[in-house]
Amino acid sequence: MEEKLFKKYIILWLSQGVSGLGSSMTGFALVLWAYGQNHSAMSVSLMSFCNYVPYVFLSLFVGGFIDRHKKKTIMLVSDSIAAAGSLAVLALLLAGSLEVWNIYAINAVVGITNAFQQPASAVATGRLVPKEKISNVSGMNSFSNNLIVVFSPMLAAFLFAAGGLPLILLIDLASFAFAFCVLLFYITIPEQAQDKAYSSPFAGIAQGFGFLKKEKGIFFMMLTMALINFCSRLTYENILSPMILARSSGDSAALGIVNACMGAGGIAGGILVSVKKESRHKTAAIYVSAALSFLFGDLMMAVGRNAFWWSAAAAAASLPIPFIMANQNTILYQKIPAAMQGRVFAVRNAIQYSTIPAGIILGGWLADYVFEPFMVSGNRMAGMLGRIVGDSAGSGMAAMFLCTGICGFTVSMISCFNREIRKLN
């Protein structure tokens, strides 16, 4: 029975990879389009900000709903609403009335659907995959996600030249339709007996936090990962694209190469995780991997002056990430009872990702209004920083990478020695 369910998961994984490729191409094309409107890092930051704010807020309340309802239905409905967002972008584009604020609004709707889809998908994975294969599956997910990162910029650039943004959006919708049909007609997700002990979203929140009160190690792990996410979103997943475009005189090919190398690093990490044995020291693997990502990724990105060094930094930053995700997922699936996974995963998402919107919006603001102006101010400190990160356009954002590299490495190493977290081993 377990083998049959695992085979169904493989089919689901492949179909979601196809859908993810379409979505990623659309996202890459829209970032280029939005940055091209006003050359502002803040405009790109707000795209992610509008997605994460509703996602984080609603994650607190959806846990009980996830546990009480069919995961397959939740995933189908959520994906359908997200696809309607891509359809809306296409309609506005063809009508000649697409504006940046339209993308912000659509991203907010997608964030709402993600608050339901992601914990439902996490629970579904736990139902379809044997626990001893969770770490390997996390490696597979990292492999597919980063494979998408490698190919989506190149495919998006080629398709954009061939047929423009409408063609990319049509491919996105076609990939959604394929994944939707696979999930609807082929995948069966086992359901646990429904828990009638709670009847409101607030009861689900209380029970999720009640579990974390008993499992302090998991709670502290979520808090420290929230700090790590904050540092990451200030730069890597926020101002990376504007910085590369600024420092390369708007060379989208250079940006595509850097993104491809980031994906290649993640692919290598995903392959290593998927074939290696489960780590005995899971928490050390999580935080040492995070520390190495900040140390070699952010710092090298800060001092790099060309696509070669930016690409090397991107690969160094992304290679350790699959080890973080795999070991964290293994701990969570081993510690959280199946009947409570929806509530706990939802609360986890609210805690662990709550710092992402703040990091995104603060990163964009710091880039446009603090670091970039500071680096051209003629200040003595700016001159000293300029010797490290350069003094061309985008050097302020490079200085931000220098800061997050130091802070992220420090937070990761301190967390590694937390007594409650180490007990999770």
> Uncertain spans, ≥5 residues at pLDDT below 50?
none
Give the fraction of residues assigned to helices: over 70%
For CATH, the homologous superfamily is named as MFS general substrate transporter like domains
Specify the number of helices: 18
Strand coverage percent: under 5%
**Count of domain modules:** 1
Main beta-sheet annotation: none
CATH fold-level topology: Growth Hormone, Chain: A
What is the structural class?
mainly alpha
- CATH class identity: Mainly Alpha
- Radius of gyration over all CA atoms, rounded: 21 Å
Give the overall shape, derived from the CA principal axes: globular
CA-to-CA gap between the ends?
30 Å
CATH architecture: Up-down Bundle
Mean pLDDT rating: 84
- Reading the helices and strands in chain order gives HHHHHHHHHHHHHHHHHH
Explain the layout of strands and helices.
Layout: H1 2-38, H2 41-59, H3 63-68, H4 71-94, H5 100-128, H6 134-185, H7 201-214, H8 216-234, H9 240-247, H10 252-275, H11 282-303, H12 307-318, H13 321-335, H14 341-352, H15 355-375, H16 380-389, H17 395-416, H18 419-422
Helix pairs in contact: 1-2, 1-5, 1-6, 2-5, 2-14, 2-15, 4-5, 4-6, 5-14, 6-10, 6-13, 7-14, 8-15, 8-17, 10-12, 10-13, 11-12, 11-13, 11-17, 15-17, 16-17
Describe the structure.
With 425 residues, the protein is mainly α. The chain has one domain: Growth Hormone, Chain: A. It has 18 helices and no strands. α1 crosses α6 and α2 runs antiparallel to α14. The longest helix has 52 residues. The protein is globular, with a radius of gyration of 21 Å. It starts with a helix and ends with a helix. The relative contact order is 0.15. The model has no long low-confidence stretch (mean pLDDT 84).
